[in-house]
Write a structure and sequence with these properties.
- By secondary structure, the chain is of the alpha/beta class.
- The protein has two domains: about 80 residues, no CATH class; about 140 residues, 4-Layer Sandwich (Metallo-beta-lactamase, Chain A), CATH 3.60.15.
- It contains seven helices and twelve strands.
- The chain has a seven-stranded mixed β-sheet with strand order 4-5-6-7-8-9-10. A three-stranded parallel β-sheet has the order 1-2-3, covered by helices on one side.
- Helix 2 links the parallel strand 1 and strand 2.
- Helix 1 packs across helix 2 and helix 2 packs parallel to helix 3.
């Protein structure tokens, strides 16, 4: 699910985490074609055998999308552009696509995915816009998940509290660069998550979440890698 802005950092972390003989990744998902989400995945497409690459319908055009298209074509990788209502099976796990709509109304549509496996569930909001969030809240039941990844690195949104109430997570995970110039995660997002175990990559480093019996087993650790170049993760504010 996305790959961050630093290819070397992601490849080093995968190399330290996956068994050395593992050269295949069954599925990679690009929520949208911004460099802070895509750069690492471009390196994964080069280094690993990838079973399937998924993206949103209406993937935003530009140099990042061009590089994504090129890597997929050169690697002969299976590819699907998905919209709300699509479902994928991955072993004993299922992935439901909650957004974008088939005809996106925004310039940068983002995948919103819900993963479920053996009683475990996680909701990944990508960079869903305020309008996309409002649309999802019209029918909130499918949002419920044990692990919640808030939209846009914890950026401010008028729907922060409503989303948390709909998801009812046991834990939240915010992927965000240390010292980023946008101030993410914002106080509003953190206030909405008050009372929920919240983990942040800028503060906690690598976060591993496993289904442990009837609860969640969470481990955090610094991976010994240098911080991202420049000390921050560049990304633009979400479209309103």
């Amino acid at each position: 699910m996305d790959g961050g802005p630093d290819p070397n950092r992601l490849l080093a972390e995968l190399g330290a985490t996956l068994p050395p003989w593992t050269r295949r990744i069954d599925l990679v998902a690009l929520t949208h074609a911004h460099i802070d989400h895509a750069a690492g995945l471009l390196a994964v497409l080069e280094r690993y055998e990838v079973g399937l690459a998924i993206e949103p319908v209406g993937l935003n055009a530009g140099p990042v999308a061009d590089a994504w298209n090129d890597r997929i074509a050169r690697g002969g990788i299976a590819r699907r552009a998905l919209a709300a209502g699509a479902r994928l099976r991955l072993g004993d796990a299922s992935i439901s696509v909650l957004a974008p709509e088939e005809d996106p109304r925004v310039d940068v549509p983002s995948l919103v995915l819900r993963l479920e496996r053996a009683g475990f569930s996680a909701l990944f909001m990508g960079d869903a816009t305020d309008q996309a969030q409002a649309d999802l809240l019209l029918h909130p039941a499918p949002l419920a998940a044990r692990v919640y990844v808030p939209p846009h690195h914890g950026a401010a949104t008028p729907h922060a509290s409503a989303l948390v109430a709909a998801v009812r997570p046991a834990a939240a995970l915010i992927s965000v660069g240390a010292g980023n110039r946008y101030g993410h995660p914002t106080p509003e997002t953190l206030a909405a998550l008050s009372g929920i175990r919240t983990y942040r990559t800028d503060r906690d480093g690598t976060v591993e979440i496993d289904q442990g019996g009837t609860g969640l087993a969470v481990r955090t650790h610094a991976n010994g890698l240098p911080p991202p170049r420049g000390g921050s993760v560049p990304h633009a504010p979400a479209s309103r």
